[in-house]
């Protein structure tokens, strides 16, 4: 589409800035005719890119569930889930903070990423406090939180791709070629900038990765 727009700009510029047109028309007449035509091409391309951007962002937004599903299947909460969480919190406060104790207490929630993420933050905070009072090194809790950490890292990458997708197709282009007609300058062609090209490359690589995930 960009190539078509650039070809159209080039065609109009060649037509109105040719030696014949310069002889036949005044500079003001050329500029009054050529400027709006180029503006129309640019605006049409801009509006089309906005539509493509919106479609792309919708597609990328839909990827989140597939990213998460690599690590967690859908989880149906039991009726007494809130009470189970409250009980687990009390146990975490009362039991010695060890890798095995934490794993046993949090076992009923291991399929719930959001809740396990909350527990991870809580346990790590409790552990940091215990390290100070007990003068020990932090525990890793890999047995309990390895999957949470992996999923969080994958979703963080997804969030980065979402941020890139918000700008794709609508990043400012840079001027590739310019022609003058008296005091007026006309752009013959625009090209994608670094942010656009790099963003497209990153998003394509991410899409390939997500496409390889197994839906559970």
Question: Main attributes?
Answer:
216 residues, 2 domains, two-stranded antiparallel ribbon, 9 helices, 2 strands, rod-shaped
Describe this structure in words.
By secondary structure, the protein is mainly α. It folds into two domains: 2-66 and 161-211, no CATH class; 74-146, no CATH class. 69% of the residues lie in helices and 7% in strands. The chain has helices at 2-16, 19-24, 27-61, 64-69, 81-94, 99-106, 113-134, 142-165, 194-211, and strands spanning 174-181, 184-191. The chain has a two-stranded antiparallel sheet. Strand 1 (174-181) and strand 2 form a beta hairpin. The longest helix has 35 residues, at 27-61. The protein is rod-shaped, with a radius of gyration of 29 Å.
List the helices and strands and how they pair.
Layout (H helix, E strand, L loop, with lengths): L1 H15 L2 H6 L2 H35 L2 H6 L11 H14 L4 H8 L6 H22 L7 H24 L8 E8 L2 E8 L2 H18 L5
Antiparallel strand pairs: 1-2
